[in-house]
Amino acid sequence: MRVIARDVKWSECPAGIAPYTKESQTFLTVGREYRVHGLAIFGGCPAMLVVNDSRSPSWEASWLFDVVDPSIPGDWICNAFHAEPSMVLGPAFFARNLASYEAMVELEAEQVDRFWKHAESLENE
User: Fold this and answer.
1) Range 89-101 burial, b when 16+ CB lie within 10 A, else e
2) In a 10 Å sphere around its CB, with 0-12 CB exposed, 13-18 middle and 19+ buried, how is residue 80 labelled?
3) CA 32 to CA 86: how far, in whole Å?
4) Dihedral of the CA atoms 113, 99, 20, 33 (nearest 10)?
5) Which tens digits make up the pLDDT trace of 33-47?
């Protein structure tokens, strides 16, 4: 899955997204294409896991992007949790359970290592 960062008007950020998305904390280049490494629905807000311009894994609101390639990678799984987020799609190393997802959100070292190994394997495709 690939997306392009949109030129958004931050003053028009939807109320449901505003708590999770701040202009000062968003490191994306308008018009740049990003590979999506996972999806989550948190608080009713779809978020996409991308590598931002500071070269860090980052969950960003889908409002910030236009989808240019909607295909879902073959190694993704879908999981639904009883607590937020209600749904996660992505590689099993972070989508298999809530603890694994939370480790990815918190950028725990072992999970980030897994992320980079997975991301590097995609570059070799």
Assistant:
1) bbbebbbeeeebb
2) exposed
3) 29
4) 40
5) 999 999 999 878 899
In the chain, % of residues over pLDDT 70: 97
Contact 36, 48 (CB under 8 A): yes
Q: Could you give the CA distance from residue 87 to residue 114 in angstroms, rounded to a whole number?
A: 20
**What is the C-alpha separation between 80 and 88, in angstroms, rounded?**
6
User: Coil, strand or helix: which one is 61?
Assistant: strand
On the question of a cis peptide bond just before residue 85, with omega within 30 degrees of 0, the verdict is: yes
112 burial (CB, 10 Å; 0-12 / 13-18 / 19+) is middle
Helix (H) or strand (E) holding 4: strand 2-5
pTM of full prediction above 0.85 = yes
